[in-house]
Design goal:
By secondary structure, the protein is mainly α. The chain has one domain. Helix content is about 90%, strand content about 0%. It contains 9 helices and no strands. Helix 3 packs antiparallel against helix 4, helix 6 crosses helix 8 and helix 8 packs antiparallel against helix 9. The chain is elongated and about 70 Å long. About 35% of the residues are buried.
Length: about 270
C-alpha cells in the first residue's frame, strides 16, 4: 500500500515536472520567434505586396465585425447605466462619460482584440499549420527562403498596424451607439451626451487604450504564428493548434490587460 502511494506521488511529480519543462521550452521558442520576427522586419528585402494583403485581411475585412460588436456594446452600456441612474436618481447622469471611458480605456481594445483573435488568429494558425503538416514550410527552407521573413513578418506588421486603427473605429462606433440609446431611448439631449463624453476625458485616456491594443496585437500575431509553426499531427493537429491558439491568446489578453492597466495607472499617478 505504501509502495503504491509512493509510486503515485512519483508519477504526479514526473507529470508536473514534464509540464513545467514544456512550458519553459514553449516560452523560449515564443521569445525566439518574437526576436526573429522583429529582426527580420527591419532586414530587406521588404515584401510590401504581402504586407498590404495581410493588412487588408486583418483590418479592412475585420472592420464590420469589430464595429458592430462595439456599436452594440455602447448601446448596452448606455441602456444599463442610464436606466439604473433613472431608477435611483430619477435622472440619467454621466451616461456619455461612462460609455466613453469604458470604451476607450477597456472595452474598445479588449473586445477588438477578442474579435481579431477569433477571426484572424485562428486563420493564421490554421493556414501556417496546414503548411507545416504538408511540408510546405520545409520546402521554403529548401528553396533558401526564411519562413519567418516570408510568413510571420507580414502578419505581425499587419496586426500591430491595423489593430490600433480598428480599436479607434470601435471606440467611435461604440460611442455613437451609446448616443443613439441615450438620446432616443432614455431622452438625453445630444448636447449633454457629447459634453459628458468629452469634458471629463483626457488625452492620457485615449493613449491608455491605444497602448493596450499594441500589446494585444503582438500577442495575437506571435502566438498565432508560433502555434502554426509548431503544428504537427495532420488535420487533427491543425484543429488542436487552432483551438489552443484561440484559448491561449484570449487568456493572455485578459492577463496582459490587467498588468498593462496597472502599469499605465501607476505611471500616470507617479
Amino acid at each position: 500500500m505504501a509502495n503504491e502511494k509512493t509510486t503515485e506521488k512519483f508519477n504526479l511529480l514526473n507529470i508536473f515536472k514534464t509540464k513545467f519543462i514544456n512550458i519553459l521550452v514553449s516560452l523560449a521558442k515564443v521569445t525566439t520567434l518574437f526576436y526573429s520576427t522583429i529582426y527580420s522586419a527591419f532586414v530587406p528585402p521588404y515584401d510590401f505586396k504581402n504586407i498590404v494583403n495581410q493588412m487588408i485581411e486583418v483590418g479592412v475585412k475585420s472592420l464590420p465585425m469589430t464595429s458592430l460588436t462595439s456599436f452594440f456594446t455602447g448601446m448596452v452600456l448606455a441602456l444599463q447605466f442610464g436606466t439604473s441612474t433613472m431608477y435611483v436618481l430619477n435622472e440619467p447622469l454621466y451616461v456619455g462619460t461612462v460609455v466613453t471611458i469604458a470604451l476607450i480605456k477597456e472595452l474598445g481594445p479588449v473586445l477588438t482584440a477578442v474579435v481579431i483573435t477569433g477571426r484572424i488568429g485562428a486563420a493564421i494558425t490554421a493556414e501556417l499549420g496546414t503548411m507545416k503538416v504538408t511540408e510546405q514550410i520545409d520546402a521554403l527552407y529548401t528553396l533558401g527562403t526564411n519562413p519567418i521573413k516570408y510568413l510571420a513578418v507580414p502578419r505581425f506588421l499587419a496586426c500591430i498596424t491595423m489593430l490600433p486603427i480598428l480599436t479607434i473605429f470601435a471606440n467611435v462606433t461604440g460611442i455613437i451607439g451609446g448616443f443613439l440609446i441615450g438620446n432616443l431611448r432614455i431622452g438625453i439631449p445630444s448636447t449633454i451626451y457629447w459634453s459628458e463624453s468629452f469634458d471629463y476625458i483626457f488625452i492620457d485616456d485615449y493613449f491608455h487604450g491605444f497602448i493596450k491594443s499594441i500589446f494585444f496585437a503582438v500577442l495575437i500575431a506571435i502566438i498565432s504564428c508560433y502555434k502554426g509553426f509548431e503544428c504537427s499531427g495532420g488535420a487533427e493537429g491543425v484543429g488542436k493548434s487552432t483551438t489552443s491558439c484561440v484559448v491561449t491568446t484570449l487568456v493572455l489578453i485578459l492577463v496582459t490587460d490587467y498588468f498593462v492597466s496597472q502599469f499605465l495607472v501607476a505611471l500616470r499617478i507617479g
